[in-house]
Amino acid sequence: MAISDDYFGDPYVDTDEWRDDGDGIRFRYVHGGFDGTDTRFSFYFPPEDVYQNRFISWIEGGQGGSEVNALTGGPIATVSTTFGAEVGAVIVESNQGHIGADLAGCGGDSSILCWRASAESARYMKQLATEMYGAAPRYGYVTGGSGGGVRSINCFERTDVWEGAVPFVMPHPGQGVFFSFLANVIRLLTREERAALAARTGLGGSGDPFESLNGEQREALAALYRAGFPRGAEFVLSNPFEAVLVWSWHSSELMEHDRSYWHDFWAVPGYAGADRPSTFEPFLLEEKSRVAKVVTAGDLLASATEEEWAAGGAAGLIGRAMAMVMPESPFAVVVEGLDRAALDQATGAKVHIGSGIGAGRIVVCLGVVGDALVCSASGEAGNLLFDEVQAGDEVTVSNRDFLAYCHYHRTQTDLDLDQFGEHYPEFEQQVVDGHAVFPTRATFGFETVMVSSRYQYDWAGKMIICQNVHDIGTWPVGAVNYHQRLLKLRGEQATDRDFRVWWFDHAAHTPGSMFPSVGRPHATTRLIEYGGAIQQALRDVIAWVEDDVEPPARSQYEHTVSGAVHLPHQAADRRGIQPVPALTINGTVVASAKTGQPVRLDLRVDVPHGAGSIIAIEWDVTGDGMWEPEPEIDGTKASLTASKQHTYTEPGTYWPSVRVTSHRDGLVDATTRRVPNLAQSRLDVT
Amino acid sequence: MVLTLEINGQSSATIRQGDMANFEVLVGGDPVDVLLVDFEGSGRWEQAVGPVFRRTYREPGRFVATVRCGGETASARVRVTRVSVTGGAGIF
Lengths: 686, 92
Prior knowledge:
The complex is a heterodimer of chains A (686) and B (92). By secondary structure, chain A is α+β, with helices and mostly antiparallel strands. Chain A is built from 21 helices and 29 strands. The radius of gyration of chain A is 25 Å and the shape is globular. Chain B is mostly beta strands and 92 residues long. The N and C termini of chain B lie far apart (54 Å). Chains A and B meet through strand 1, helix 8, helix 14 and helix 16 of A and loops of B.
């Protein structure tokens, strides 16, 4: 019998045992599901003497599909069993109604994925908690990032299961279309051209992103900026994964949604493929060949160099992360006869198995690592990937549809209006005086995964959104949109009574440590690990809901008419909870020196009011990712200055960096709730 | 008297990694209460309480499940297909 929602059958439990997480944290692990559905869940109950009458639902990102995130622990690992024990919370997660990449379990009803499976799992957890502790948890909280950010909002807005929410790296309502803008830029700019773009927009660069680009590249990049692409995040384009990963999830659904677009793009005037076919010739890849080798994730982890991962785009970053989680998975394939020129165009291409047990399976190439095409997909093909595919099987590799997808955003003009009749400024560039610039197609809302396209902006409880400034996946404008609409609907005072948006500078969609990194500056000198900030936000929401303790003030920001989001330079003005460091070399941010000449690095860092104190300062004098701690940081000060002298003996360009970490309670040995930030300078040594 | 084993109502079934398979054992149409079962064909026999019992398959592969009762054996084939975690597991 269903707990509350008739879609779900009887709950069953197939694992119920006490476990130790390896760090001495004991918990009761319960795994099961609901009969007649694909919904599975995991619950992590702390011992009774640790339990504090609350639970936290962890909403996995992407498409969801796994119920063992807290168990396996990801690179972010925000809601681990350790954190659950620290806050005395039962951790709850579900596969959000479907198994792995196959969304069939949701029966075409996105509400299953977006909130109902998570809510029903939480309700059943309450039954078991009542048996275990004598009463159900009084308070519930929901959190998740990216796709999990959308769906944690969906859960919070559309049910009464939770009292507080911490969505992070949350998408804009038009997010799905942003990926098409992004894919086009990634297609048009080679890896070297993207590196040059990063150099122009980085320290010591001209500041002009368009310099030296051709007309087509300029148009694509300008459209990307106008849609809200984060300024200063151009360097993250060296390892983009978001656009191609999302294409791999949505390509089959998108092609079903609009069956003729993929033909019209190449045949009907008004579409780029038909208007200018010659400009696509250098990019087009259509090869029929045979499988030379199927490569498991573990094989690739063992054989690929850091340079190969770094050159792999989406495969290098997200593919490597996937590989670590599922090393046995046959997730890549080497195809006979693909030369380097072909491999360079393989990103986004469809890989269609033509014979053998896998015949008919279509997956999408995330990128190329060495000569292996690392792939992903939705549906059963996404679960199986190259399982039981053999060397010699026929295979076709074609990027024809991906090239059309790179222009799909042009067709989505209805997205300039929300459900209140308000314009999304990000899409106004596509409509002039009420007329669509390009041929319009039926709106695709990516709603299977993201009911986000229609946030309700209405809920009871407390919410803190954590948004990252250098996130090229879910852009800052996602949080701007949500905050601005709340302000319109509720007014400023009422909004601040229940809501915060906190910005995190030098933070991308994933932590800096996940980025393959070759040469200077190392990824960890530009991008932080932000999981500790999410943990602090959860602690703040808990105190806000249960004890009416107001968290630190919301971050201040400026949103420009051209789609940029800028933060104030001073901590007192910026607010939020992240420390704000400033680093200079001999008094300037971009400096030069001679070999053998001592150079002085000066740091000033301030923690916003009420956000704690500084517990660590680390220096990296070259930018190679080798960090050296500043001694005697005792966690008592919210503002600090520090200096370091270094003599460079070799000529070259260096990226002296400093990483500062704050903690609400000033605990220098804390393993959770650490909130870092970075500052970097450039030094040319001759 | 013929011992038969059905998995999800059939003599063979395809399920997904992590799915729970439902087994039913009959002797001449009558239920059997206690028997031994080897779920994966690995030679590891364990006691099952019949006639209906369940088992979650956590690894992909092709398996032959066998039950033994009163000197009789019966088998059913199960293919467990892979579930990949491209949706975001382990990352977010």
